[in-house]
Design brief:
This protein has 179 residues and is of the alpha/beta class. The protein has one domain: RTP801-like (Ribosomal Protein L22, Chain A). A hairpin with a 2-residue loop joins strand 4 and strand 5. Helix 3 crosses helix 4. GO terms for molecular function: 14-3-3 protein binding. Its main location: cytoplasm. It comes from Bombycilla garrulus (Bohemian waxwing). It is found in: Cytoplasm; Mitochondrion.
Length: 179
């Protein structure tokens, strides 16, 4: 028996001129500007959230009694901003529904440095744990930092980070992304 072609196949092959076919081949979804899919409110909220992240890192508690000034390189800020927006785009409230736990990893230790609600007026729908790393090239210079005494210089963060996303309204599995 002969298989019949679907209506879509027969319509596509039977209609249009060669010029139309050439035009259709030249257009694809990946060519579209995906920035149109971002919510402008989320963009503004994310900029404010990044300000709060930088301020929190500026007074990060890395030891029992110590606070350190952690510097976030511009490249890291941009990567984190893009990742936060990407992870929020599938959420019912967008970035407004995010709870952000901020951690800094050095060696095998991970220090909790802050908890930020993206929009305190919104019931959180998802939790992001952002794990930043100290620049490993600085390790010999900072070994004494975690002992007692004042911090003398700000510490720079590495451009590598990890984000864990947990939906608070679903039993869906934990999503971990390493950047």
């Amino acid at each position: 028996g002969r298989l019949e072609t679907s209506d879509c196949e027969s319509l596509g092959s039977a209609s249009g001129s060669e010029g139309d076919a050439e035009y259709a081949e030249g257009v694809s979804l990946p060519d579209m500007d995906l920035e149109l899919l971002h919510d402008p409110e989320d963009e503004q909220l994310c900029a404010s959230l990044m300000d709060v992240v930088r301020a929190t890192l500026g007074r990060a508690p890395l030891g029992a009694k110590r606070c350190s000034r952690l510097l976030m390189p511009a490249q890291l800020q941009e990567q984190v901003r893009a990742e936060l927006l990407r992870l929020a785009c599938s959420e019912p409230c967008g970035l407004r529904g995010a709870l952000l736990d901020l951690c800094v990893e050095h060696g095998k230790a991970c220090h909790d440095v802050g908890h930020i609600a993206a929009d305190p007026a919104v019931v959180p729908t998802f939790q992001l744990t952002l794990v930043l790393r100290l620049d490993s090239r600085l390790w010999p210079k900072i070994q004494g930092l975690f002992a007692s005494g004042p911090a003398f210089a700000p510490l720079k963060l590495s451009t590598g980070f990890r984000v864990m996303k947990k939906k608070l309204y679903s039993s869906e599995q934990l999503l971990i992304e390493e950047c």
